Amino acid sequence: MKAIVTLLVLSLLATAFIIFNSVFSTPTTQPSDYQEDKLSPANDENMEEKEGFVLLTSIQPLYLIANDLIGDLITVERLLPATTSPHSFQLAVSDRKKVDHANVIAWVGPELEAFLEKVIAHKQTIEVGEAKNIEWPDGDHLEDDHAFDHHHHGRDMHIWLNPTNGIVIAKQLTQSLLNHPQLPESVKSQMPQRLEGFIHRATEMTQNLNLSLQSNRDTSFVVYHDAYQHLQLGFQLGGYIELTESPEIRPSAKKIYELKQSLKNGQCLLVENYYNTPLAQQLANEFSLNAISIDPLGAESESYFQLIEQMISQLRSCLNFAQ
C-alpha cells in the first residue's frame, strides 16, 4: 500500500514540474520579428553611404590611370576583370548594377567597348577616346570642329599605350570630375596638384624608357594582331608586321603567302596573353617565330606606370631576340 502511495506522489510531482516549466521557462529563440530585423538591408545602405563618389572605369588601363590620380580620394572601380579583353565581353546582371551605382563612367568609346554604348546612355560618362588632344598614329588629332567623322571605325583604340595619351586621359578625367556637381569640394581642391604629379611622373618615365630603347629602336618585329600603333608612335619604334586582322581566325591563303615573303626566321612575335591560343602558337611555329607574351591591359600591374614599363620590358626582350 505504501508503495502505491509513493508512486502516486511521485507522479503528481512530475506532472507539476512539467506544467511549471512550460509556463515560466524563457524561450530559447528570439521572436520572428526580431530575426527579420537582423536580416534587414540597413547595413547595405550604410555601406553605400560610406563609399561616397564612385568613378566606374570600363577597363584595367583606365582604372590604373584613375587610381593613380585620385584612387585614395574617391572610390574607383573597374567594370571588366583585369585579364579580360573588351573585344568579346558580355555584360552580366551584376555589371549592370555597377553601372547604375556609379556617379560617372569612364570608357574609351564604342569602337573598343561596343557592349557599353546602350547600357550607359542614361549615365554621365567620360569618353576619353574623343579627347581632342589624343595622338593618333596617322598624326591626326580630334579638333573641336570634328574635321572627320565622330567615330572612326578601324582605328587602333589602344590609346593608353602612348604615355602622351596617358597624360591626355588623366587631364580629361580631371577636367570632367572638376565639373561634376556631386564630387566633394575637398576632393576637387586636391585634383590639380594630383594631375601635376601624374604628368611629371609620366614624362620622366617616358624619357627613361626612350633611353633604354636606343640600341634596338629600329629593329622590326611581328605582332599577332594590330594593337600597337600607339606604342609605336609613343616610342618612335621601327615597323612591325601583323599576322592576322582577327585574332580568332586563321589568315587567308593570300595573307599566308605574303607573310612567308616578308618574314625572316628568328623574328620575334608579340602575342597578347589573352590571345595566346593554339592558333597563335601554330602560326609562330609555321613561320619560325619566337613568341613572347605581352600584356597591353596591365592585368598584373598595380599602376599605369608599371603597365607601360612592363610593356617596354617585354618589347625589349622581343627586339633582343630579333637581333
Topology, element by element:
Layout: H1 2-24, H2 32-38, H3 42-51, E1 54-57, H4 60-70, E2 75-78, H5 93-101, E3 104-107, E4 125-127, H6 163-178, H7 185-188, H8 191-212, E5 221-223, H9 229-234, E6 240-242, H10 253-262, E7 268-272, H11 278-286, E8 290-294, H12 304-322
Helix pairs in contact: 4-6, 6-8
InterPro entries: AdhesinB, Bact_metal-bind_prot9, ZnuA-like
Family: Belongs to the bacterial solute-binding protein 9 family.
Keywords: Ion transport, Signal, Transport, Zinc, Zinc transport
Relevant terms:
four-stranded parallel β-sheet, 323 residues, Rossmann fold, alpha/beta, 10% strand, globular
Q: Please indicate the count of domains.
A: 2
CATH class of the largest domain: Alpha Beta
Which stretches are poorly predicted, pLDDT < 50 over at least 5 residues? 22-51, 139-153
Distance between the termini: 116 Å
Query: Could you name the CATH topology of the largest domain?
Result: Rossmann fold
What is the average of the pLDDT values?
82
Silhouette = globular
Kindly report the oligomeric state of this protein. single chain
Proportion of beta-strand residues: 5-15%
How many helices does DSSP assign?
A: 12
Q: What is the CATH homologous superfamily assignment of the largest domain?
A: Nitrogenase molybdenum iron protein domain
Give the helix level as a range of percent.
Answer: 40-55%
Radius of gyration: 31 Å
User: Pairing-aware structural class of the strands and helices?
Assistant: alpha/beta
What strand order characterises the main sheet?
Answer: 2-1-3-4
How would a crystallographer describe the biggest sheet?
A: 4 strands, parallel
